[in-house]
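Below is how a single chain appears once it has passed through the pipeline. First comes the sequence as given, then the structure the pipeline wrote out for it. We keep one example in the README because the format questions we get most often are answered faster by looking than by reading.
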Amino acid sequence: MNDITKSIGIALSGGGIRAAIFHLGVLKYMAENKMLGRIARISSVSGASLAIGLIYSHNSLRWPTDNEYTNTALPKIRDVLVKHNIPKIAVFRLLYSPYLWNKKVNLLSKVISDHWGITGSIMNIGETPKWYINCTTYETGKRFRFSQCDMGDYTIGYIRNPQVSLSDAISASAGFPIFIGPYCLKTNQNWEKSQYVNEGEHNYNGTYLHLWDGGVYDNLGIESVFKPDNGGQLCEGVDFIVVSNASASIMNENRTTGFSHKKLKRLLEISRDQNQALRSRMLIEYIRRTQKGVYLKIGRSAQFITSKSGANGELSKYLTGKCISDDEAEKVRDYKTTLNRPSEEDFDLILRHGYEVAMCTYMCYQ
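Resulting structure:
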């Protein structure tokens, strides 16, 4: 990872504001170690899409240099996140504009544009690194992606040079089912057939596509940087993969009688957790075999990482003395998956944990 010739692909998971801040901490460690300029591809889901959108929006729609990120963009982002409570603002607007009830994803887009400063079109951001904003197509059940050069899923096809605002694409990626709802995209455009589509798959003729949270399909968002074919391989132009997983841990829960949205959410979480577990095991096996990546998981303390890695006593003592405790790491792991405004203390703790997980994993495994 310290080889300056390596091109890095990063996959950043969903997980609301918890994930956004954790990933910002991971990127802070990468910036301090002169890695941001080597990132060739970014793949983001939900909360991670919000984090990357904030980085671009607070750095003139350019990917920052290491110094710009640490000294300019990150302090601005912290200030924005701890000041504005996005859900509260959105609910207040719903009270005065009830017609937006069935367009909550559009409302989210408007609120993050007005209060977080996420503006501009996805076409306006720099060409490198290539950024993939992941969603889930309801109609096809496939991954829908927005990027600087195109948007689409492989069964429907792709539209070149998408005329979509950055806040809309990010809100579609974060449109959690039940609570936020889908982003509606008209299909009356010129869709180019994908070279990967099988005969008979390119047959959707509806007027709209409905895009949900990218975490429904894959909460790790790895497909834009890593392909699982033939035991796994990195995507073109990527020599090293960094996967940052800030997904919520699924806990035991007693079932009550009757219907509720909470039960539907629980079933979705179970399905997503199993899908993620399979992808994680495959990815970790690839990293162990090839040494071409790192897997960073929220909630892992310095003590856990040093113990699992077999780090020598001196390094273990240094890292466990420098980093947050096991209890604090668990507190970050269990932070709720919401877009609510974090306190300054919570922001700093989650950011620090992301930084330390990256630092400990790198130092112990490289």
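The first strand starts at residue 8 and ends at 12.

See the next section for the split statistics.
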